[in-house]
User: What shape does this take?
Amino acid sequence: MRRSGLVVHEVLRRAAAAVRPGVTTWELEEVADAAIRELHATSAFRGYRGFPCVLCVSVNEQVIHGIPSRKRVLRAGEIVSLDCGVVVDGYYADHAVTVMVGTPEQVPAPVRKLVEVTEQALADAIAQARVGAHLGDISRAVQDRAEQAGFSVVREFVGHGIGTHLHEDPQVPNYGAAGTGPKLRAGMVLAIEPMLNQGAPGVHVLPDGWTAVTSDGAASAHFEHTVAVTAEGPWVLTRP
Ligand code: MG
Ligand code: MG
Assistant: This one.
C-alpha cells in the first residue's frame, strides 16, 4: 500500500501542477491517466460502478465525484478538488487535494480560508489515527476544526477503510463524538477525507449520477490521505 500511496501522490502532484487558468478539467484527466500508466499502476476509479475517468475533478460548489470535461475551462479564482485512486499489485491508495486556480489572491478570502481549514482538519484527523484511539476521535477532530472556523461538514459522504478494495469497512464520518466507534489497532488503514462546505452542509447529486454539489451553491473543499495506523503512530502512505 505504501507503493500505491507513493504512486497516487505523484499522479496528483502532476495533475495539480497542470492546474492553471484556461486548462480544461479533461486535460487534468489526461495528465493523471498518462502518469498512472508511466508509473505502472492501474486506476481504481475508471470503471468503478461505471465511473468513466481516472480522476474526479470537482470545481467550486462541486463537493466530490466531478467528471472531467472537455468543455469545463478553469478560471482564475476558482478552487478545484482532484481525487485519484490507484492499484499496485492488488493494493489500493486514495488521495485528494484541493488547489486554487491562478494566484491565491485571486481566490475570495473566505474560500481560501475554507481550503486552508479543510487541509488543517485532515491534519488534525490524521493525528488521531493512533493505536488505542477510537474512530470517533478522527471524526470529532474534523468536525471541531470545521465548525470552529464557521464551516460545515458534509454528512452524505464519508471516508473509509482501504486495502485490497477501494472501499472497505469501517466508514469514517467527518462528524461524530470522541471516544465512540471501533478502537483503532495497528495495521488498520483508513482513507480519511474531510469535505467541508462554506455554507450549509446539504449536498445533492447532479443528473449525471455522480457529481455531488452543495445545495446552497457555496464552495466546498476536500482533502484525503490514505493513513496506516502503526505502533509508531500514523503513517501517511500517500505522502513521500
Ligand atoms: Mg478519494
Ligand atoms: Mg476515498
Observations:
- The longest helix spans residues 109-127.
